[in-house]
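Kindly inspect both lines:
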Amino acid sequence: MPVNVALGHVSNAFLIAALVIYSLSVVAFAGDFAFGRPRRAAAARGQQAQERAAALTAVGAAGRTAPAPAPAPAGAPGVPEAAGGPGAVPAPGTVPAPGTAPARGAGAGEPGSMPEQAVPALRAIREAGPWVQTALALSLAGVAFHSTAVITRGLAVHRAPWGNMYEFVTALTCVAAIFFLFVMIRYRAWSLGVFVMGAVVVTLGLAETLIYTAAGDLVPALQSYWLDIHVTAMTLATGIFFVAAVLGFVYLWVDRYTRRVAAGRAAPGNGIVRRLPGLEQLDRLTYRTIVFGFPVWTFGVIAGAIWADQAWGRYWGWDPVETWAFITWVLYAAFLHARATAGWRGRRAHYIQLLGFVSLIFNILVVQVFIAGLHSYAGVS
């Protein structure tokens, strides 16, 4: 069937509208940083409570040899308040009472764990303030326009809408936006919206200005149902890894600032850092994101090998794109392995996962464009 050029133009119009709406959502998320309700006082109390609980747990693990402290009035400095008070520390293994938010970093002793939120999502959004509500509404509208742009592109070309680099980038950023909205609402991570949605805006803007490709037919080598299987899996995984990479950059920035404050080389009280989740929570959120995306990437690599056997008569031929896809898989596998077995957390683990994302981007932007191979179908002249 011939390409529907008019519908292709409609798709591009929806994508530009999504880009504008996403930009407005970033402004709204930034407005929450500047003018939103302060939400760090309770978090600071929760962190102090966590530190006190960790100290008590350490004493108990040592055989409880230290003498029990004398009773002190609730609310005294350094002493947990009575149950239900602002600084209350739940006993190990207990669940917070309904309607109370768990202390920041709770569950840090469980690898990859993250406390469930007791407050329903809609109530949490209402309590977050008008800036967050506006940003979420704009983000949802942007996702609706973005998804419509991807779908109409597919209808215009009568195939899966990721047959060249431009279509691949627009699709993966759509996946990243949808996935992050789910993560943000589930874990009340409003303060991360300005970073992730900002990265989506920059990536979409570069795609529209530098690698835009008009709707057209596929090259013969890609005209297979395996395009819907292999490239779909790679698109989903790349969108998820995109979110993990942004979270990793945020983690390293906060970690660097924290270490500089501890060394006396920076002034404490940075307004942006104070509104961000804690380092432990950022670490666990990034870990969960990669755990979700890694099996999808693995399936995509396996599907690509099966497609290669049907197209070229071999499962693996060390083509440049195949090789870098495998290198990316190894780096993300190393991140998960190191974190699960060696207990790596913090900077070292995030360096590994960011190296994996650099390998992925190098494969897309360099290998597929400048290195000749069987996968040179980027469509970028």
Observations:
- The chain has a mean pLDDT of 80.
- The radius of gyration is 24 Å.
- The chain is about 65% helix and 0% strand.
- Residues 226-262 form the longest helix (37 residues).
